[in-house]
From TrEMBL:
Keywords: Aminoacyl-tRNA synthetase, ATP-binding, Coiled coil, Cytoplasm, Ligase, Metal-binding, Nucleotide-binding, Protein biosynthesis, RNA-binding, tRNA-binding, Zinc. This is Alanine--tRNA ligase. Residues 1-465 form the Alanyl-transfer RNA synthetases family profile domain. It is an enzyme of class 6 (ligase). One of its GO terms (biological process) is alanyl-tRNA aminoacylation. Catalyzes the attachment of alanine to tRNA(Ala) in a two-step reaction: alanine is first activated by ATP to form Ala-AMP and then transferred to the acceptor end of tRNA(Ala). Also edits incorrectly charged Ser-tRNA(Ala) and Gly-tRNA(Ala) via its editing domain. Binds 1 zinc ion per subunit. It comes from Anaerobranca californiensis DSM 14826. Residues 412-439 form a coiled coil. GO terms for cellular component: cytosol. The lineage of its organism: Bacteria, Bacillati, Bacillota, Clostridia, Eubacteriales. Its main location: cytoplasm. It is found in: Cytoplasm.
Amino acid sequence: MKTSEIRKRYLDFFKSKNHDVLESASLIPQNDPSLLLIGAGMAPFKDYFTGKLKRENPRVSTCQKCIRTGDIDNVGKTARHHTFFEMLGNFSFGDYFKEDAIKWAWEFLTENLGLNPENLWVSVYEEDQEAYDLWRDLIKIPEEKIVRLGKKDNFWEVGVGPCGPCSEIYVDQGEKFGCGKADCKPGCDCDRFLEVWNLVFTQFDKDEEGNYHPLASKNIDTGMGLERIAAVMQGVDNNFEIDIIFPIIQRMEEITGKKYGEKEEVDVSLKVIADHIRAVVFMVADGVLPGNEGRGYVLRRLLRRAVRHGLLLGLKEMFMYKLVDVVIQLMEDQYPELKTKRDYIVKVVTLEEEKFAQTLEQGMQLLEYELAKLTKGQVFPGDIAFKLYDTYGFPLDLTKEVIGEKGFELDEEGYKIELEAQRRRAREARGEVEAMGTQEVITLEDLEKSNFIGYTNISNKDKIA
Ligand code: ATP
Ligand code: MG
Ligand code: MG
Ligand code: MG
C-alpha cells in the first residue's frame, strides 16, 4: 500500500468519525515563541487543548509536517527515526476521550489497514488502570501483550499545563529485528517492537508546585508516524525503504556509484542524506533560510551535515541541489506548494551548499590534523573549533560530532571565549551592531545576485531574509 494511500485512508477514516480534516500547519510555529519548530501534530493546537481557543467542531484530524532535531543522532542508526517526518493525528478538544480514541485506533489498524491483531502490542502508563482495562476488556488484548511503562515513556508533559498519561501501540516485527534479550518487549530500544502510534490522554493540569489537577474538559491527542506505518504496510526493513523515501537513496546511488545494502557505513550516509534533504526542502519551502541562529541554524546544520556525509561517500562535487526535484516529485501531491516554490528551494539549497563546499575539504583536513595530535583523555581545542566555525563554516554540532566519532570531547569553554572575543571585536568595529560572523544568513541580496529566477512564485512571507 502506497504511503499516499495510508495518509488518505487515515484522514478519511477520522472524517467518517466526524473530524474536521485540516491541512498541515507550517513547520514554523505561529504565535508560539516557546517553540522553534513544529515537532508534533498537536503543537499547532495548544490553545485548543488549554481551552483558550474554541472551535465549533471539537474533533480535528491532520497529517502534520514535523521536525525533530533531537532525533538527529538516531537517523540512519535506527530503522525508525527521521528529523523530518509526517505525523498523522486525531484530536479531541474536550470531546471524546479514552474509550473512543482506543477503539478507533484499533479499528483503523486492524480493519482499515488490515494488520494482524496478533502482531500488535500496547503499553499504558503504569498508574492508568482505566486504559489498561479498555485494552483488556473492550479490545480483548491478551494481558501479556499490555505492558505498563513509567513516566519517562508513557506520561506526556511539557512544563506546566495540560498533561496526562499515554498509551502506545507497537507492531512486533519479529525476532529478526530484535536485540535477542529474554526480556525484550515494548519500550526496549531495539527495533523489534516498533512504536507506531501514541495516544495521549490529556486529563490533568499541572501547576507550578507540581500538583496534578483533573481537567474540566479532557482531551485526546494522538500521533502516528506515517513513515513507520508505511514501512509496516510495505513490508520493508526500515523507514528509508518506503516509496516516498527510497527513490532519494536510489538517486544518490546514481550520483555516487555506491550501492545501498552492502556496507553499513555507506547505508548510514545514504540514509542521513535522504533524511536531511527532505527536512531541508520542507523547511525552506516554509520560509526558513540558513543562518547561525534559531531555525536558520537547524537548517544550516542539517544541510551541512548531509554535505559532509556526501564527502564520506567520496563526493567532491555538489549534490544536494540535485535531490530537491526528487523530493518534490515524491511529495508534491500532498504538498503542491513545493512545486510552485521549486526554483526558490533549489536556489537556497545551491547557495548554501556552494558556501560550504568551498571550505569543507580544507576544514576536514584541519580537523583531522588536529585530531591526530590528540592522545586519549585530551580535549579538542576550543580555538580550533572556533576557527572551523568562523573560517570554514562548520556548525559547532558538526565539529562535535566528528570529534565524538573519534572518541574525543570539545573544550567548549575555549570555544565560547573565542566566540565572545570575536563578537566584541565586531561590535567595536561596527559600533553597536551585533556581530554577524563570516558565514551568516543567506540574504535576499545573495539570491538576487545569483540570477535567481523564482520570485514570481514566492509569496511575501518567503522574502524575509
Ligand atoms: P520513539 O520512542 O520511537 O522515539 P516517541 O515516543 O519519541 O518515539 P512520540 O513523541 O510518541 O514518539 O510521537 C508520536 C509518534 O510519532 C510515534 O509513535 C512515532 O510513530 C512517530 N515518531 C516520533 N518520532 C519520530 C521520528 N523521529 N521519526 C519518525 N517518526 C517519529
Ligand atoms: Mg523519541
Ligand atoms: Mg516512545
Ligand atoms: Mg511515544
